[in-house]
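Hey, I was hoping to borrow your eyes for a little while. No rush at all, and the record is pasted right below.
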Amino acid sequence: MRHGRTSELQTSGGGAATGFLTSDARAGSKTSALAMTAGLFFAFRAIFVLVTAEWLHVGTEPGVLVSLSMSLFLLLATLLQGFGGAAQRIRWAWDVRCVRWVAIYLGFSGCSLLWTGSSSPGASALYWCALTCDAAIVLVLFKGYEAQQAAHSLMKGFIRGACVLAAIAWVMPAAEDLRLGNLDYFNTNQIGNLCALSILLSSILSHRRDGESRFAVVFLTLTLFRSLSKSTLVALIAAQTYRLLRDGGMGRRKKLLLVLGVIVVTVLFWGLIDAYYVVYSTSGNQAETLTGRTAIWAWALDAAVSKPWIGNGIDAMWKVAPPFGGELFEARHAENEVLQQFFAYGVAGIVMLAGIYGSLWREFRSVRDRSERTAKMALLVYVLVRGLAEAEPFDLLLPLWMIAMLALLVERESSLESHVKGHAAAVYIGDVPGPAQ
C-alpha cells in the first residue's frame, strides 16, 4: 500500500517539476526585440567603419563614434528595461566564476590605459568603453528578461546580422587576391569569423529546438567558403569534426549529410581555391603568409618579454610596431591569441585568458544534455584552433559579451534545474506518511 502511495507522490512531484520547467521554457522561447536588436548590433557594427570611410568618404572616426553611440544607447535602453516592473535580481551573476573573470579582464585592460604604448590612448579608451558596454548590456538583459529569452534573442539577432553582412560581402568587389571583403576595413577574416560564430550558435539553438532556418546556415557556410579565410575555415572544420566525433545524439544520417555537404561545397569552390592558391603562392602579401606571421610573432614576443608582468597595455601595437614585409603591412595585433594577451597584459594576460576560457569550459562541462554540451564545446575548439594564427586587438576571439551570455545561460538553467529537483523532493518527503505511532 505504501509503495503505491509513494509511486503516486513521485508522479505528482515529477508533474509539478515538469510543469515548472515547461513554463520557464515557454517564457524563454519568446523573442525579446531589445535583446535581438543588441545581437544584431554586435554583428552589424563590423561594417560601420567601411561605410563611413569607403562609402561616405568621411573618415574612420565617424564609424567608431556611431558604434560607440549605439552601444551607449542600447545600454541605456536595457537599463530602463532591466530596472522596470518585470526586473529580476541579478546578484547571482557575480557568483558565476566566468563572469568574474570577464570583469577582472575588463578592469585590468581599463587600468592598462595608464601605461599603454598606444599611439592614441584616447581612441583606445573609446574602444575599451565599447567593450565594457557590450558586457554590461548582456548583464542587464539577463536582469530584465528570462535567461532563455535574453540568450536566444541575442543569438538570433547576431545570426541575422551576420546574414545581412554576408549578403553585402557577396555584392562587394572582390579583393585583388580573389577573397571577399575590403582589406582595410571589412576584411575576409572578419567576414569568415562572423559566419563561423553564427553557424556554431545556430547549432546550439537547434539543440534547444529554437534554431534559425537551415537556409541561413547554408548561406553562411557558402559565404565562409567563398571568403577563403584560411584560419577560420580550418578552425570551423576542427570544431565540426569534434562535434561529429563526440556528439552521440547526432544520427549517422545527419553526420553523413554534413560530411557530404563539405565535400560538395569544396568541389564547387575548387576552381576558386586553385586560383587563390596561385595568387597566394606567387604574390600574396606579407600578412597572409606563414613567413609574414612569424615575423610579427617574433617582434611581439620580443616586445612582450621586455615588459613581462603587466605588458605593453591595451592597443599598444597599432601604429607602434614597425611595418612588416615588402608591402609594409601594419599589424593591429600579434596574430596569435596567447601571444597577443602576453604582449598586451604580460603574464597577467595569460592568467586572465586561462581563467576566462577555463571557467567557461567548466560551465559547459556541467551541461547535462550531451548534444548541447558538445555543441558548446565546439565553440571553444573553434577559438583555440583559430587562436593559433589570429587575435583581436581589444577583445578575445570569442567575444566577451558572448562568453558572459553563455556562462549566465548555463548557470541560470543549472540553478533552475536544482530548484526543480529540490521542489520535487520537498513534495515527496512532505507528503509521504511517516511510520505509524
User: Anything to note?
Assistant: The radius of gyration is 24 Å. Residues 1-28, 423-428 have pLDDT under 50 and may be disordered. Residues 31-84+107-398 form one domain.
